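MODEL INPUT / OUTPUT PAIR
PAIR INDEX: 1
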Amino acid sequence: MEDSSNNQTNSAGTFRVIRNRVIAGIFVVLPVFITFAVISWLYNTAHTLAIGPIASGLRHAWGKADGDPSWLLSAVSSLAAILVVLSVLYIAGMFFRSRIHRAVDWILLNVPGVNTIYSSVSNVINALSNSQGKQNFKRVVLIEFPHPGMKAPAFVTSECKEETTGKVILCVYVPTTPVPTSGYMLMIPEEDVVELNWDLEETLQAIVSGGIKVPANVTYHRA
């Protein structure tokens, strides 16, 4: 009986060791996975919109069809396409906040249909990428989303008043993990939000990391 009990104890101890190692492995792999997931998403988007078409154009310019079996040609054309994209971005960066940049902004902001999309995307990206975020995102709050009983961090972008009751209605932006430039615009009564004690940088870090990197304390309940 003692041998059987000892074997069960050893088996339970071994199981706990294996379980703890697996959990520790998750915490090691998850940040790496999220980082590569974001990089992969960015690369796939860039490849679809720019790198792929440029590489295909280069192969045609070199007299080689897309079905050419040479992996070296494919690698060289893709590398050349990446260099072209980086060069274009570098040149575009030289004109940041210049008259040319303002002229492009003016054109896109005055094209019907395009102006709504362009201004919205520009405001979100500018808010998330530089100090303007502290001006565009006035407050950081917690709201019940996507279901009652669950809460998600949101950025207050503006506010208005409900016509019949006079209550303050907040327009909030709820970013998604791990890419905060996509998300939801929601309208919620001010009385239903909880003021979050995290600043903009801490909130973005928590969102991008999938909750792995968060401040030690959170104002989860309304005071």
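PAIR INDEX: 2
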Amino acid sequence: MHQLLDEYLYYLVVERGLAENTLQSYSTGLEQYIKYLKEAGVNSFNEVSRGLIVAYMVKMQQKGKSPATICQHLAALKSFHQFLLREKLVDNDPTANMESPRQSKKLPQILTVDEVEKLLAQPRLDTPAGLRDKAMLELLYATGLRVSELIKLTVDQVNLEGEFIRCMGKGSKERIVPMGQVACFYVRTYIEKGRGKLIKEKTEPALFVNQHGRSISRQGCWKIIKAYARAANLKKDITPHTLRHSFATHLLENGADLRSVQELLGHADIGTTQIYTHLTKKKIREVYDQTHPRA
């Protein structure tokens, strides 16, 4: 069973080009699934029944797993069993026509423009680390990058003259994202006056580096933003993704069309982008209630 799992993971890497984080999530979830099957006395995927999978979902629910997590696990199971059937490694797919549990769509938390301004004003510009942090924050808000995309950026992927970046998104898909004059100014300032004092090796390709001169980590980026959020006295739970959500919402509020925002965010499905329209509609309702005489 583990050998078939290895074949599936290889397929995800080679054929579908999944990102490392997604691949790790699939691997961990399916390892847990196989462990469950073996504990149930199942030693072949041909022996798996629909009822067994339903029982597995119920067990996850009893352990306190959220509907979102259960849906993700079921999606992984479906994809895995479909692969096994397609490759003729099993005789049937027990997940066929199984529906995911319903889950309420949680609207992402966003910052107001004033809150963004307060956050972006926190880094000190008289230290290399402060210049780096200022450039990071400005770039996140100007481009809507995922934190995984930000930390993988290299100096070569930044075009200061054209004011755009080339980034590798999910599924190793490259996209071109404009970064605007303000972000471009601070990225240029960081490269010219800060980055050289942080790197240890001149051959280091990463744009944003830590105190050891190596590419900054996801955790490092989170800690930096959390610290500046506290310094700005912002009460919201702010993460790098909060700036991505704010980027998309502010664009739509100011008249950007959904397709353009989809392209900028690197969403494969426009349905993912549509959640931001709920936020803008909510904002419109608030403005109406506050300003119309008969609201």
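PAIR 2 NOTE: The chain has two domains: 2-86, 113-290.
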